[in-house]
Amino acid sequence: MRQILIVEDDITLNQGLCKALKNDKWHIVSCGTANEARDQFAISDVALVLLDINLPDGNGIDLLKEFKFQKPAVPVIMLTANDTDMDIVNGLEQGADDYITKPFSLSVLRARVNTQLRKAGDIHETEVFMSGEYTFDFKNMVFSVSREVVELSKTEQKLLRILTENAGRTVKRDTLIDKIWTDGAEYVDENALSVTIKRLRDKLNAGGRIKTVYGLGYSWVDQNE
C-alpha cells in the first residue's frame, strides 16, 4: 500500500491531518522532524508528501529540494504559517506542487491532496467531496445537501467538480469556459458561465460557498473560511 507522508512537528495538527486523510487506499506515515522524514522517504513507497516549512531540525524548503531531487514525480504540498508572496514563490520555485497556509480547513486540504494524487496518476476518480452539509459523489453522480439529493446537469457537474477540486483557490473565468465547454466551438458566450453559476448556487443553496472573485473568476469557499 502506498503512503502519504506527513511532516509536521505540531503534534495536534499532525494527528488531525492523519485522521482527516485516513482511508483504506493509503497508509499514513507521520513524522515530526526532518531526519525522520528523510528516513521514511528513502525506504517507503511515498505517493505524496505534506511538508511543514518550519521544522525543529531543519528547513522544509531544504527538505523539499532533497525530495524533488530524489523522486521528482512525488507531489509535495507545503504547509506553513508563512503566507507572504515571497515565501509562496520560493516554495513553488523550489518544486512544491501546491502551497497551503495555516490555518486551513481539512475539507480543502483533502480536495487539494486528491487533486495532486490524481495529477500524479495515483487516483483516477475524485474522492467523494464532503464539506459541511454538502456531499458530492462525482463517480456515482450523486449530489446531496443536508442528505437531500439534488439533480445536476452535466454542465453543472463539470463546473462543480472543477470548483471543488480547486477548493480555496480562484479559478479564472477563461479556464472554466475552456474546461466546461469543450465541444470545439470557436465562440462561447461568457454569459453561459454566469447562468450556470447562478443555477448551481440556487440548486445547492450555495450562495455563501460559490464565491465570485470580481474581475477574475470563482472559488469554492469552505464554511470555516
Automatic annotation (TrEMBL):
One of its GO terms (biological process) is regulation of DNA-templated transcription. Residues 126-222 form the OmpR/PhoB-type domain. Residues 126-222 bind DNA. Pfam families: Response_reg, Trans_reg_C. Keywords: DNA-binding, Phosphoprotein, Transcription, Transcription regulation, Two-component regulatory system. Gene3D superfamilies: 3.40.50.2300, 6.10.250.690, Winged helix-like DNA-binding domain superfamily/Winged helix DNA-binding domain. This is Stage 0 sporulation protein A homolog. The lineage of its organism: Bacteria, Bacillati, Bacillota, Clostridia, Lachnospirales.
